[in-house]
Specification:
By secondary structure, the chain is of the alpha+beta class. It has three domains: 48 residues; 70 residues, no CATH class; 59 residues. It is 61% helix and 18% strand. The chain has five helices and six strands. The protein has a six-stranded mixed sheet, with no helix packed on it. Strand 2 and strand 3 form a beta hairpin. The longest helix has 62 residues.
Length: 241
């Protein structure tokens, strides 16, 4: 067997290897893309569970201040339907809170012993009444009203267009309408004058034609006249009226 024959037997084997390598590459790419899509879908579905907003307060300088935000999901425990909250950032399991300060929003403060306590604002009117706070002070209300009126007159003055814009627009519309009516009447007068002139010209033409026909009739009939001449004379007389 010559070298050429051996090369011909070996070349199909190389083509098969290339085909297998190509399909393996496609398979690896498909597996990688599928795993990435599955990972993104799992991450998105898992993050959707953390829809409860946790506002955390801590004591800073003898006052409680907002120190951060966390998100919690509901986790069911046991077979009795009990649930707890799991904080994503804090990695904490907390009892399901009962006090909401908004739609799926809960406030917690860190107590001195390190325990996170769910709390709310409460009924401020009731607390103020229990503390004996005066709800309305007449002098303060009068001063507030005077200050509001002064600020309104000083900084809330309407501009020229705000005050007279509607009147200017109405006057402009009336002016444009008057111009349109005047132009229409002016053009109508010209049309009527033109029609009157045309009518006069037609009358003159009819009179001239009538005279010509009378002369022709006299020449042809020797002055006896014909049936056409009286008709034309009558038309001329009607025009003179």
């Amino acid at each position: 067997m010559s070298f050429v024959d051996k090369a011909k037997e070996f070349l199909p084997g190389i083509g098969t290897v290339n085909l297998i390598a190509t399909w393996m590459t496609y398979a690896v790419i498909f597996i990688v893309v599928s795993l990435a899509a599955a990972g993104l879908a799992w991450w998105w579905a898992n993050n959707r569970k953390y829809y409860n907003k946790i506002i955390k307060f801590e004591k800073v300088g003898n006052t409680f201040q907002d120190v951060g935000v966390d998100w919690a999901k509901i986790v069911r425990i046991g077979h009795t339907g009990d649930t707890v909250h799991y904080w994503r950032k804090g990695k904490l399991f907390r009892p399901t809170p009962q006090i909401q300060t908004g739609a799926r929003k809960f406030w917690y403060f860190l107590r001195e012993d390190g325990e996170w306590i769910n709390f709310g604002i409460g009924d401020l009117d009731r607390i103020a009444r229990e503390l004996g706070c005066v709800m309305v002070i007449t002098d303060i209300r009068h001063a507030k009203e005077a200050l509001r009126k002064n600020l309104k007159e000083t900084y809330d003055k309407p501009g020229f267009l705000e005050r007279f814009g509607a009147h200017i627009a109405l006057l402009s519309l009336m002016f444009m309408f008057a111009i349109a009516v005047w132009f229409a009447f002016y053009q109508m007068t010209d049309v009527l004058n033109s029609m009157s002139t045309l009518t006069d010209k037609v009358g003159q033409f009819m009179e001239t034609a009538n005279g010509i026909l009378i002369k022709i009739d006299n020449v042809q009939g020797g002055g006896s006249g014909s049936g056409l001449v009286p008709a034309m004379i009558g038309l001329g007389l009607w025009r003179r009226r």
